[in-house]
Amino acid sequence: MASYKVAVIPGDGIGPEVMNEALKVLRVLKDQDSTFQYHADIFYWNSDYYLKHGRMMPEDGLEILKNYDAVLFGAIGDERVPDDITVWELIMPIRKQFQQYINLRPVKKLPGIKTRYDDVKSDIDFVIVRENAEGEYANSGGRLYSGMDQEMAIQNTVITRKGTERAASFAFEYAKKHGKTKVTSATKSNAVVHSMKLWDEAVKAVADSYPEITLEQNYIDALAAYFVMRPESFEVVVASNLFGDILSDLGSALVGGLGISPSANLNPTGEFPSMFEPVHGSAPDIARTGKANPIAQIWSTAMMLEHLGRDDLSTMIIRAIEQVLKRGEVLTADLGGSATTMEMGEAIIEELTVHTSLNK
Ligand code: NAD
Ligand code: MN
After folding, report:
1. Rounded CA gap, 309 and 315, in Å?
2. Fewest CB atoms within 10 A around its CB: which of 15, 24, 203, 232?
3. How many CB atoms lie within 10 A of CB 48?
């Protein structure tokens, strides 16, 4: 039987607090399901580590992580260390080295969470597939004529056929696997003609192999408006790095905020480990108060299990979260309640225990 190796990086601030609850969930699943085996190693690579060693992770940190099936990440960020160091010396090297070229973010309206769409009949339930390796974030360009009248900056966008096709393929495969009927591509080929026309062509070429799935190509400005006007109409949205970044935050705002928003940085080929992390940061304003909502971290753990091929356990976790929210008795402060991080974790675990024993 497969035993998964999971590298756990709790990080700073509320990272370790929400990670504790996620690890408890994993332990309960293992105790209840004899077909699920894993081994977790915890790496305390965070701002304390940086202050002690002058680096965010050991020199062979990436070599160490390479031996794992997945990385479960909390959050990083501490006022004693500049944010560009914590991000660029820990998160970015992992994303780049392990070719995590897909950033996947579910946008799902959960029961019991108040949104502006509570009177909408259909569910809001879609995913954003963000190209995570190139696009507008390619570090290419420069500045000229500093201090002069004609001072200027050039920032190049890199769109490759291969990079776009693999993002589009992921989106269509995801749609197929999850019984979705439509993929929406974010574009701007009417104005950004070189890069976005290649994007459109590459997406279209992939779409042609999936005749049963409709391709919808929307200009990013109109698409942002459609997100707000009819979020229930989307199923899978594929976007370049910058467009996907913006749409992801918009999507998360539509359905309830940071405390419940998970994400996955995926290396779909499986050659390298993928990384699963909540969208939120280390939230220093609420660290050590017990107010942090662990749902985003626990949901990210569910995404990890789906990636590892345990869709059943992933679904079970998401159902348990939904049940707890639907009952509305245990809610953290960000959701309008007064439950602590641990109380929320325990409520989800209790729900899981009930479900699993019912399934037997
Ligand atoms: P943040 O996500 O940490 O917090 C923004 C707001 O949301 C805060 O008011 C916080 O209390 C609240 N919040 C966040 N997560 C919550 C949760 N689980 N439950 C309840 N409330 C929650 O963003 P920020 O304040 O802009 O940044 C703080 C630090 O985190 C910075 O150092 C930043 O660089 C870092 N950061 C890290 C990541 C990451 O690790 N991937 C992502 C974003 C920000
Ligand atoms: Mn962002």
Report:
1. 12
2. 232
3. 13
Checking 325-331 for CB contacts under 8 A at 24+ apart, the result is 325/110, 325/111, 325/112, 325/113, 326/111, 326/112, 327/112, 328/112, 331/112
Is the shortest distance between the CB of 285 and ligand 1 below 6 Å? yes
Whether ligand 1 lies within 6 angstroms of the CB of 256 is answered as no
Sorted by sequence, the CB contacts under 8 Å of residue 338 that are 6+ apart come out as 331
Task: Quick: pLDDT tens for 116-171.
Answer: 888 877 889 999 999 999 999 888 899 999 999 999 999 999 999 999 999 999 99
* 291-302 pLDDT, tens digit each: 999 999 999 999
User: Is the Cβ atom of 283 under 6 angstroms away from ligand 1?
Assistant: yes
Q: What number is the ipTM of this complex?
A: 0.98
If one counts every other C-beta atom within 10 angstroms of the C-beta of residue 197, the result is 15
The CA 289 to ligand 1 mean position distance, Å, reads 14
DSSP calls for 116-185:
TTTT-SS--EEEEEEE-SSBTTS--EEEESTTSTT-EEEE--B--HHHHHHHHHHHHHHHHHTT--EEEE
Q: Are 247 and 227 in contact (CB under 8 A)?
A: yes
Helices (H), the chain: 15-32, 47-53, 61-65, 83-86, 92-97, 161-177, 193-207, 220-229, 241-255, 295-307, 311-327, 341-359
C-beta of residue 296 within 8 angstroms of C-beta of residue 264: no
